[in-house]
């Protein structure tokens, strides 16, 4: 017997790499600053290590690569330089504008980024009015991803049942958070391969934002959004 149609109460998007094309920009700033300290780092390798992680976690990774503690004030200087670069360079991920126009479901954003950075990327890309009051950063919760806190906060804020929420993520860290929250997780292969997202636990994967509205419609019509356990 086919499962009954199941509603989707809320679609929750990660921000960096899913809605805004920011990770390459901040990654270059991060790598440049580490090279200035004498570290031999590759932009692509560093990005792969840090994708989906909080700034605090990325700073720990950077210190390990450098082989010594980061100098005092490194984190604040990185924040200033990365925000300045984002204000000048950030754009929407390809196809996001049309995709959002085609979705007739409640949407929110939940990111491991700080709200001060998110305010810049959402403003510059024109998403801030669309998601007014519907975006959350790591400073809104006690534990960032891979803990489920931020996704559960979004669901609670809008009265959505976690098992009827869909998360759109592009990193293993975010996928783990969505699964821990008991939500269906769609993996967007913007930077990582489809295979890696499947290995990380994504329930479904896609590589073109134009496909997301149809995927959500299919989930809503023909299958339960998530199952217990």
TrEMBL record:
InterPro entries reported in the protein's UniProt record: Beta-PGM-like (IPR051600), HAD-like_sf (IPR036412), HAD-SF_hydro_IA (IPR006439), HAD_sf (IPR023214), PGP-like_dom2 (IPR023198)
Needed co-factor(s): Mg(2+)
Pfam families named among the record's database cross-references: Hydrolase
Keyword Magnesium: yes
Lineage top rank: taxon: Bacteria
Record key words, sorted: Magnesium, Metal-binding
Assigned protein family: Belongs to the HAD-like hydrolase superfamily. CbbY/CbbZ/Gph/YieH family.
Protein name: HAD family phosphatase
